[in-house]
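Q: Hi! First time doing this. I have a protein sequence and I read that you can turn it into a structure. Is that right? Here it is:
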Amino acid sequence: MTRLQDKYKNEISTGLKDKFEYKNIHQIPRLDKIVVSMGVGKAVENKAAIDAAVKDMAKITGQKPVVRTAKGSISNFRLREGNPVGCMATLRNERMYEFMDRLVSVVLPRIRDFRGVKDNFDGRGNFSLGLNEQTLFPEIQLDQVEFTQGMNITFVTSARTDEEGRALLDGFGVPFRRNSSEN
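A: Yes, that's right. Below is the predicted 3D structure, encoded as structure tokens:
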């Protein structure tokens, strides 16, 4: 059992049960999965960009990502249906908790001038976060990076409201901005 799994089981779940006064333990919000995705716009001109993104994401997530293809053709972007445009990996169970632990304790503190992540909830307790480059992760060696690539990370929870989702992620240590007037 990972450190965050143990923390959820012993601390976070009881804190959420007391705070929101749940009658049943199945009402307590939990983290269902984390989806990590990279859109690779350079893949249209350079086919090696998608391979580099897949290789980097495999190092970051610990599992092989799925290559995503274009659903339709857009002539202005020189994009044809079926061309690879990105990759994604869905993390569950222990890999999910290990990734979240690395993200919160190692990656986010490495961001220059970091003041916390913005509230970016979808209305149903799920949270999304964007990173500008994959080199923030310690698994990626700077001298081996071919293309600097950003990524989106989505935390899918069983929470019914944004308040419950924020309380859950706050318990895991996600550093939210305290002052909502900041940009």
